[in-house]
Design brief:
- The protein is α+β, with helices and mostly antiparallel strands.
- β1 (52-59) and β2 (65-72) form a beta hairpin.
- The protein has helices spanning 3-16, 20-29, 32-46, 87-92, 96-111, 121-126, 128-139, 154-166, 172-179, 183-195, and strands at 52-59, 65-72, 80-85, 115-120, 146-147, 150-151, 199-204, 207-213.
- 51% of the residues lie in helices and 20% in strands.
- A four-stranded mixed sheet has the order 1-2-3-4, with helices on both faces.
Length: 222
Amino acid sequence: MEFEEAHGLFMDKHLTERSGERRGRLVRGHNYAEKLFLQNVWWPLFESLDDLYPEYEVYDWNRKSQFLDFAFLPQSGGSLGIECDGFQSHVKDMDRERFNYAVNRDTFLTGMGWKMIHFSVDDLQHRPEVCRMLLQLVLAPHLARKSAGVDILSEEKEVLRLAWRLGRAIRPKDVTAHFSINFRTARRLLQSLSEKGLLKPIVGRRGVRHYELRPMHPEQIW
């Protein structure tokens, strides 16, 4: 499925499930920056919009309703809040009181178990690879131990986390240097992850020297 089709189905689903102000907020709030995040950052990593909720309602310490641009709420647990911040609306036009509230809100949500992450609209548009790297860095510690019913060994999980943090094709020597293990063990781990469909071997003139991360499904997180 292509992104535009998936995004259309995604919006139809959430609009159908909402009413009143929650529906109105989605109509008004899901605009250019939010779609840019999905298209340039989330979709290339996951090729899925499952477990992602646009304009998600939360409450502050005074039970005041607020909306996050996105909430990632996988069925296995965990709460990630994602904000797409434009300079004009989130910095230039923000007075001291609003700034203080925004800082306190993120701290409150963190205390309530949320992990908050912010992306600038400029980066979403011009440097999406940086945003993908940062998102991978945040999510890497929460990689699940199973993928599509396949068990992932603890050491394989650590290799996946390393691959996410690197943000590029991973090599056996990356694994040997990071974990202080021999080349044969590193290659075995990479080959095992390739056989389980989590890494894609890149064949060159000297054989397989690099492995790329395959798009992951949201269920593989947390």
